[in-house]
């Protein structure tokens, strides 16, 4: 984003902002130049890269043949018979597959719609706090839930909202209000999953946006203040334009996970009475692929889910570059 794009047109004519706008723009460096200059950092990253290749890429490549084979444990991957698209066809013909697919898309869409803006808003509010001590406390409080495991989160939600002895349920009952059973009612399953997920991850999502705001030139804020810009003007013309490229990037990347609605959380919150709205692809594959020993079926569904995710992210990147002028690999 050019510096001039972050300042309102009326303010550009004043002397304080004009001096800042006169600062030279940084020229983009080629990938080869960056690699030569940052070789030491790449060397430090080497163990992590090797770990990803050995434990992620290699197993993935090794299991690709299972997608097109009737895998038998006793025969192994290479001796099992080829069946082409038989595994994915079997998944499509399953009576509950399309309901599971719909549940996954709906839950992922709700997560994306409800969870996209809160980290941005929280980052802007935290960044504009004047007292550093209050800012650090707010950051610590919002970061902490991310490091809590989903079983612990489920336990906290249960302690608060349990229909019999939940803390919040008991408090509301004492003033004459009755909270419905949120765990056994399919109507409340999706909101419960979505909002507990937002509570857990909002602080972690805020980190990226705070890092972007911290990188904005302080001279821009000072110049805007000198020129009479109020706090809402600074948010509108400095903070939001600075966050736009990163927000578009994260939104584009999040579309790749539309078919992954969060196995661990859903599996913990799922009950027999909420299967009609809570059973997603990952939990379905867990039952059929692992518990049912249909390894070829589970691998095929996971593989095609990844392929669809790749297609979605490429399409989203194309649309982002066309309508927002910003994509995964820079602005258009």
Features:
70% helix, 18 helices, mainly alpha, two-stranded antiparallel sheet, 332 residues, MetI-like fold, globular
Largest pleated sheet: 2 strands, antiparallel
Q: How many strand segments?
A: 2
Radius of gyration: 25 Å
CATH class of the domain at 114-277: Mainly Alpha
- CATH superfamily of the domain at 114-277, called what? MetI-like
**Count of alpha and pi helical runs:** 18
Q: Structural class, from secondary structure content? A: mainly alpha
Average pLDDT, rounded to a whole number, is 84
* Cα shape: globular
CATH topology of the domain at 114-277: MetI-like fold
CATH architecture of the domain at 114-277: Orthogonal Bundle
Q: Strand order across the biggest sheet?
A: 1-2
Return the string of H and E elements. Answer: HHHHHHHHHHHHHHHHHHEE
End-to-end Cα distance, whole Å, is: 11 Å
Q: Considering DSSP H and I runs of 4 or more, what fraction of the residues is helical?
A: over 70%
Strand content: under 5%
Uncertain runs are 9-21
Q: How would you explain this protein's 3D organization?
A:
The protein is mainly α. Among the domains are: 65-96 and 279-303, no CATH class; 114-277, MetI-like (MetI-like fold), CATH 1.10.3720. Helices cover 70% and strands 1% of the residues. It contains 18 helices and 2 strands. The protein has helices at residues 9-12, 15-21, 31-37, 39-67, 76-79, 86-93, 97-115, 117-127, 132-143, 150-161, 167-174, 186-214, 218-226, 231-254, 263-269, 275-278, 281-291, 295-323, and strands spanning 326-327, 330-331. It has a two-stranded antiparallel sheet. Helix 14 (231-254) packs antiparallel against helix 18 and helix 17 packs antiparallel against helix 18. The longest helix is centred in the first third of the chain and has 29 residues, at 39-67. The protein is globular and about 75 Å long. It starts with 8 loop residues before the first helix and ends with a strand.
């Amino acid at each position: 984003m050019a510096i001039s794009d972050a300042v309102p047109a009326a303010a550009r004519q004043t002397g304080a902002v004009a001096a800042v706008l006169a600062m030279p723009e940084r020229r983009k460096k080629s990938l080869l130049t960056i690699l030569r200059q940052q070789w030491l950092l790449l060397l430090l990253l080497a163990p992590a890269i090797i770990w990803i290749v050995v434990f992620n890429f290699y197993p993935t490549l090794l299991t690709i043949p299972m997608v097109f084979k009737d895998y038998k444990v006793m025969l192994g991957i290479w001796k099992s018979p080829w069946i082409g698209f038989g595994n994915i066809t079997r998944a499509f013909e399953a009576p509950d597959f399309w309901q599971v697919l719909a549940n996954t898309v709906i839950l992922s869409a709700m997560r994306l719609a409800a969870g996209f803006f809160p980290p941005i808003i929280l980052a802007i509010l935290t960044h504009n706090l004047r007292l550093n001590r209050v800012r650090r406390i707010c950051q610590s409080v919002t970061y902490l839930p991310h490091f809590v495991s989903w079983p612990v989160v489920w336990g906290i939600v249960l302690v608060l909202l349990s229909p019999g002895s939940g803390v919040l349920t008991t408090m509301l009952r004492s003033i004459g209000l009755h909270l419905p059973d949120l765990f056994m009612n399919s109507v409340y399953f999706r909101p419960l999953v979505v909002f507990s997920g937002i509570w857990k991850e909002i602080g972690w999502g805020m980190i990226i946006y705070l890092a972007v705001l911290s990188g904005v030139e302080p001279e821009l804020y000072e110049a805007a203040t000198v020129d009479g810009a109020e706090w809402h003007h600074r948010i509108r013309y400095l903070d939001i334009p600075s966050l736009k490229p990163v927000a578009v990037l994260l939104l584009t990347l999040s579309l790749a996970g539309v078919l992954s609605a969060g196995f661990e959380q859903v599996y913990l919150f799922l009950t027999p009475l909420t299967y009609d709205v809570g059973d997603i692809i990952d939990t379905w594959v867990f039952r059929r692929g692992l518990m049912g020993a249909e390894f070829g079926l589970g691998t095929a569904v996971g593989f095609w889910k990844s392929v669809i995710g790749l297609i979605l992210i490429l399409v989203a990147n194309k649309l982002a570059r066309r309508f927002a002028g910003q994509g995964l690999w820079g602005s258009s």
